[in-house]
Fold these 2 entries.
Entry 1:
Amino acid sequence: MFKSKDFNFFNLLILVSLFAVFSLLFGFLGAYMFNLSKVDKPLVLESELSELGSQEVTQVLKEESAVISVVERVSPAVVSIVASRDLSNVREDFSPQEEYFFREFFGEDFNSLFPSNPDSGSQEVSSGSGFIISSDGYIVTNGHVVDDPSLDYSVVLSNETTYEAKVLDVDPITDLAVLKIEASDLPTVELGESSELKVGQTVIAIGNALGEFSNTVSTGVISGLSRSVVAGSFNEAEQLINVIQTDASINPGNSGGPLLDISGKVIGINTAIVRGAQNIGFAIPVDSIKGPIDSVKETGEIVRPWLGVRYINISDSFAQKNNLEVDKGALIARGDNREDLAVMPGSPADKAGLRENDIILEVNGEEINEKKPLVYLISKYSPEDKITLTILRQGEKQSLEVVLGSRDN
């Protein structure tokens, strides 16, 4: 019995030892395989991520390089436009009552603000941006940058050279102005196309930010197309139609500067911002200013196409209120003063047979709506162009051919 017990205990001890050894072996083997899987798999992922990261870095570097190249090439053609007032004549224009009022209002500052010394020079009033479109000194900017004929304007190039500028013409419809300086061999920009722009496309803005930081560069994307906004101050505002929305930073002083695509071509003129918003700015599409620019170069002024009608833009609410058959178009109507005729006598519209209460629906097949009113569609053409208008007259659609005239006629 004793031996038998010793034998069983010994066998049990051997079995337990063998089990422990095999457990340790399998444990080490499992841990080794587990570690291999842990090490091998991250190595593959790290390699893949590294390759992905390299591609992204390469793409970022390419875009950064493209932006730098555009800025270096275009910046010399971007200018600051400074508006100044001649102080020597300011007090002479005051009546005794006006001088008394301003003396009371400004107090001790009156003499410094309105000096009587004829040699007192000039005072900077405002500033904006512009860009050179021809080597002999034609410069494009916003109309509102140079719309005060009582001020003097000068152009400052990127190399700090300053020239007196002559305002050739201002077009309030497109908020465009063309200036001329007497210079030659100037750097120029290249005008691109705005008809095929896409939302999300990279853009670059350059301008005289805050009237203090010339050739400031900001980048962003096109945030929206065919926007319609009202821009200006409380007392004076205008509707901007079919403009480009961008999140590239545009500040006061940037007005008139170029909005560029990634190849460095001008696709718009920076013109307005939404105060209090985060990076919501607008630019005039370059396609809408090409005709006026050409007319200035050829004739010295912006020649505007003219139809010769007064009209009301039809909206949903206006159509419902007046029981109209359509909710879009331009209703030819008299002004508030009954003497303001709906169709100007002798105008292109008169010669083509347009009448009061006609509704113009289309211009050359392009529909008139709130985003594209009649004035915008007509502005795309030039004087002497023949266009076809689709109209609604007493419930029936008709087509009329019109030869556009000049607004100065």
Note: Residues 305-406 form a domain with the Pdz3 Domain fold (CATH 2.30.42.10).
Entry 2:
Amino acid sequence: MFAGLNKYQRFVLIIAWLGWVFDVMEASLFGLTKQQMLKEMMGEAAYKASGTVWESWGHNGMLLGWAAGGFIFGIVADKWGRSRTLILTIGMYCVFTALTALCHTPLGVVFARFLTGLGIGGEWAAGAALIAETVPNEFRARAAAFLQTAAAIGSIIGVFVTMAVGGVNWRFVYLAGIIPAIICLVARFKLETDVPSETERKENPLRELLRTRPYNRNLLIAAVIGVVGITGGGILPFWLPNLVKDAVPADQLTYWKNVTMIALQLGTLFGVLVFPPLTDRYGRRPMFALFGALSGILLFLTATMAKNLTLIFILAPLTSFFALGLTAGFALYFTELFSHRFRATGAGIAYNTARIFNIPVVLFIGIVGKTSVALAIGAVSSIYILMLIALIFAPETKGQALEA
């Protein structure tokens, strides 16, 4: 995968990949510890009455921060430089993930997850733009595939961290957030400073993007694709423990929750490796359409049919292969839709602020989930229809050089 890249290009790819690995790891920790955490804070009776609602709010706190971080730090990366923004945002989510370990109320957890999300959203916007502009055009699909393997590997690391120390106390799990600080130290001295031109520093990239055709139209299309892909792709990783809970005895829940999550992320890993090369061969739009349609169908089937461990092990990884596999195309496709002067802003808004629209979906699942999580997920699977509609109007960028 790295053959043909020079030493610095490989270094950039690895640093951005590690940043995203720990992004995803830290984003996954709440889903893995939420039940243990909230039962301790609320008590068994209160958790049974409103636990899934607080689970939704904890997830939504991170989504709000993720959206705000992508919006704010995408603009910062265009005005201040990709590499410096990357270092800053990795440092942010290190500190605020560790802060979660000090929380004693559900509301405190929501606030800590919001602050963590700020760094996570900003890191993706800066990292995606940095990779797209550093590697040669012919390597961008492979770079996107490699970058998004972090979505699976980061989640698997989160599972192993939880298995290793979560049984002692869930607070120890969040202290693992300190580890990525090492990346900041290395990147601080090794990444070249990419200083924007004087004109770029003076210009407002968001304002310029919104008034410039066809990029403003591309932003709308990419945002719809991002909303659907992120919303649909995030459902199973977050709610799978709830489906497993209904399929196994209570004393086996922790074990099977972790094992099924690893199986789910193996499906993700294969999906993100396969999707970008397919878009290079068959085109961005056809592959997004194919993977999106199959994601909706399989998510519905998983929610409504996976009532035992056998079906969960079959359907969950298969769903993840398509639903999270297609997200590997975001770093590739979204950066191709915008010119250099507002690339991080456009890609950051499309990928990260889409999470604002994810919030009502998560709340819907949390509220309806008091009756049936499976029913709620099955209803939400229809969202992929919006992606298919947006793709009708989307430009095809296969084989085109990245705009200067």
Note: Residues 343-380 form the longest helix (38 residues).
